[in-house]
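One record is given unchanged without comment:
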Amino acid sequence: MLLRFGPPLAGIALIGHAVVISVGGDIERWEFALGVLLIVAGFASKLVPAR
């Protein structure tokens, strides 16, 4: 359960943090990329069949 919902929530939090920081002019592209990667990993985990 944690592996299914944890990464997308962490990704949303990272993207939100990056957006707040980018308002000040300091754009952290790696933070956006990591957030998207975590969200995609969470959705990809739903494609794996359960035991």
